[in-house]
Design goal:
The radius of gyration is 21 Å and the shape is globular. The protein contains 9 helices and no strands. The longest helix has 28 residues. Helix 2 packs antiparallel against helix 3, helix 3 packs parallel to helix 8 and helix 4 packs parallel to helix 8. With 188 residues, the protein is mainly α.
């Protein structure tokens, strides 16, 4: 057993650790996730109640409300990916430049590629937190039997591709523009 290869995860970069720690310890992270889930869950519950009360009360009549709820949940995730993700990613590099800490980052042992990829990973990770937090709401849709697993996987793939695209565009704007406000406006 001494000669058996050991599996270990690669050590994250210090920038990734610092950015994730700073972002997750802020007051806006749990507040924004809580508000997003309360709004999304509340409307999804109302869709379920309207679907259950409008039709005849028989077994198997919940498919229509489940389909509407699925489309609503996917739309909410796309809206979050379209509006929340660029807001946090657009200030990644320009915020460092405006605070005067970009020169310190460039003087560190991190390459420019590592800095940008670290900022990219943090922004995508924060957006994925919204996606994973809302996954339990999709379980209700699956329980209603209105969609299949592959439809859920396809919808989440579209949301993930949207997140990656918008984070890349926001980081590009953040690299090109000098101030945070202008980079946010340029991203939107």
């Amino acid at each position: 057993m001494k000669n058996a290869p050991r599996f270990s995860f690669p050590k994250p970069s210090p920038l990734l650790h610092k950015e994730l720690t700073t972002r997750m310890r802020s007051r806006s992270a749990p507040l924004s996730i809580t508000l997003f889930l309360a709004l999304t869950g509340g409307v999804a519950f109302m869709i379920y109640l309207i679907g259950a009360s409008s039709g005849a009360r028989r077994a198997g009549n919940t498919g229509d409300s489940g389909t509407v709820m699925f489309y609503f949940l996917v739309a909410m995730q796309l809206i979050a990916a379209s509006f929340i993700t660029p807001a946090f990613a657009a200030t990644a590099i320009s915020g460092e430049r405006q605070r005067g800490t970009l020169a310190l980052l460039r003087a560190s042992t991190l390459t420019a590629r590592q800095i940008v990829l670290g900022k990219f990973a943090v922004a995508v990770g924060y957006a994925l937190l919204f996606v994973f937090a809302s996954l339990p709401l999709f379980s209700l849709v699956l329980l209603l039997g209105s969609i299949e697993i592959y439809e859920l996987v396809m919808a989440l793939s579209v949301v993930l591709a949207t997140i990656v695209l918008f984070v890349a565009l926001a980081l590009f704007a953040s690299c090109v523009v000098r101030t945070r406000a202008i980079s946010t406006v340029t991203t939107y």
